[in-house]
Amino acid sequence: MTETYDTFDARLRKIDRSRARLAHGYAAKVTDDGLIVFRPRRHRSRVSLRGLVLLAFGFVLFKAMILTHLGTGTYEQRLEALGNGSIIEKGGAFVMQIDPATQVVAQTLRPILR
Fold first, then answer.
1. Tens of pLDDT, residues 15-39
2. pTM of the predicted model, to two decimals?
3. Where do the H-state alpha helices sit in the chain?
4. All structural domains of the chain with their residue ranges
5. d(CA 61, CA 59)
């Protein structure tokens, strides 16, 4: 009798797992014999290329605003001081280096912010 309950419980657990996967989205397909089969959809990455581009543009704009506010000399002095710190500070100094895109945006912002 317990063997019957064990197999029944195993079937219930399998159904619960299947329903949990299907709860996040599914696709229905009709097989050749007319049976409708539901399969869970694959989860795709929710990070879009547009979002990454906007994030990169925002970061360049942030760097350009700081560069415009401080001036090139002060900005480079602070980067040099940051580069003499710990590993994390060195990484920050590397990321915050003045690149051509930042220079162009800073030159564009300079007349607006001053």
1. 898 888 888 888 888 999 999 988 8
2. 0.60
3. 2-22, 49-70, 72-83, 87-95, 100-113
4. 2-40, 49-113
5. 5
